[in-house]
Amino acid sequence: MYSNRDFNRWRRHPWHGLHARADDAAEDIVNVYIEMTPDDVVKYELDKASGFLMVDRPQRTTSSPPALYGFIPRTFCAEEVAKRCPDADEADGDPLDICVFSERHITRADIILKARVVGGIQMIDGGEADDKIVAVLEGDNIWGDVQDITDLPSIKAERLQHYFSTYKMIPGKEIDIKVDFVYGREEALKVIAAAEKDYWNHYGHLHEAAKQQ
């Protein structure tokens, strides 16, 4: 459990302390906290309690993410997200993942950027909904005008599907991961809205407590 003391750190918590989008931002422009870059073959992940980036595990294979990989602040995948994935038993209980394409090579993680949502991939990992939102860097010189995932070359989504279907593979062992369904901007925005609702249902009390201090 988080205490008020945990919530009010000097360093703003990337998950709880940032907003999903600026107050004046369009619906499809979101803030993204980046955990991994396309160069990473070590799985980095946010430590939920401290807000610092930690090493989760070294990847067993040579796979590296084909896009910047992180999450949207103040989102959580629980009951509402699971409702949008009929084949899943539940959601994975993490912030909503997002992959961001950029023409320029961004080489470091633990940064924040703005991205335009264009679609997503419905991933089911061991019976849990684990959606991957797909976006492009806002203002990108190549991808900045993309509005929907259908505007991207199809190989972009295919590479994401391949990465997420194989990045947990261990020789000789089967994995239960499905990444068959790719959806567009409209469904992606509905998934984000569901994840925002899940966040407030589970963690809204943190913000109410902070207001009272």
Automatic annotation (TrEMBL):
InterPro entries: Pyrophosphatase (IPR008162), Pyrophosphatase_sf (IPR036649). GO terms for molecular function: inorganic diphosphate phosphatase activity; magnesium ion binding. Pfam families: Pyrophosphatase. It comes from the Bacteria. Its cofactor is Mg(2+). It is an enzyme of class 3 (hydrolase). Its EC number is 3.6.1.1. This is inorganic diphosphatase. It comes from Mangrovimicrobium sediminis.
